[in-house]
Design goal:
single chain; mainly alpha; 73% helix
Amino acid sequence: MEKLDLYNNWVEYIALLLMITGFIIMQMNWIFSGSKVMTYLTILLGGMIVGRIFYKVDKDNRFRWFLISCGFLIGFMLGVHYGRPTTIVILYLIGAYASFYIHDKGYIKSVSY
């Protein structure tokens, strides 16, 4: 039996963790709210977080973070009870692009602590 290699496979583990997180977020949304509007707002905000992450990481690591963000999106889609899948993907991409653009143009300053 082979040991878990966290150093070389960290992308897969984080993607799995975010997949579970996206699923849990949608289950909480379904329990407490149960509306399409909240589903769409949640995925738009998730996309905006991804856009900020893409702005902060260097170009060599963007594909890794793309795979991690796909893990979140897949988990989110698995947990959706309300809303259309195409609308969810489009809002996720719009949120990510809008956040990246806003950070790139300097409308919002990102400060690292």
